[in-house]
Amino acid sequence: MKRWIKRSLGATADGISRLYDSFYPPESIHQNLADELVQTYRTLSQSQPNSNERLEEQWIKFRQQIRDQILQSSPKAFLRRPPLSHIVGLGNSGSAFGAWQMLRRSSNWRRYRNVLNEDPTGAPIRFFLMPSSGGNQIHHTGHLCAFEEKSQTTVADMKLIVEFGGGYGSFCRQVHRLGFHGKYVIFDLPELSALQRYYLGSLGVSVLPKSSWSDPSAEGVVLLQDTRELAEVVAALRAPLSPSLFVATWSISEVPKALREEVLQIVNSFDHFLIAYQPEFGSVQNSEFFTNLVATSERPQGWHHYPIPHTPNSRYLIR
Question: What is the domain extent for residue 251?
Fold first, then answer.
């Protein structure tokens, strides 16, 4: 009942927040980036295998739905149309309101407030209590607030960040707005990597060519879909770029154990971690899995493992 009430309130707030649209700049489509995204999805649709044992069935279906959305309707307002609106378009959810309250209580509220002006790309729904921002933007900044408070450092101090499952690129954007200058690696599905290229490119964030992936002096974003390439890039960058941070908010806990274990082994020596997860996914008991991760890590000290106050049945794992 409570969950239904929260969803109803969120949907009502989303409806009211649409009235704010006329007060802010409309979405501007970068046609060359849009054409590149559409062509990438056409190519993926033609070559996409029917099954992949490394992915849950729901993710295979989701990939097809993403391609269909963009190919049938163009990238315009992708955050307001399913399936992306349901998966990465947070809007005025209870989690967004909880993150908003956490940010307001933070001693660094002024710093976070300065990075909460929403971009029109994708036409995100404005946040009811702060229409200059959006629910996703606030939600992701809340994760960064939790990380900085528990780790007693800032993302601006990081030199290498690897994010597993980057959505459409909003978290990456917020990290850069908070002062990050270094190498940012996103590992994701091909469809989402293509969407990240479109979104981050629209904002002017540098997406690096393959020739610069392993160059420690080249600042920007690396988009990967292959674990072998991820291992090669991390091996080349880990020593010269420190401190390092691994980020996975509800992503690493939503893939089969074989893939998550492979990725976590690659980043096992990282200085810092920001992980959010739900207790169970499929047949995997995530609480047990991540408790074991702490126990077997190269540095088992300094971890913070606790429930996320504003997101029921989810936990943070931060170092």
Answer: 144-318
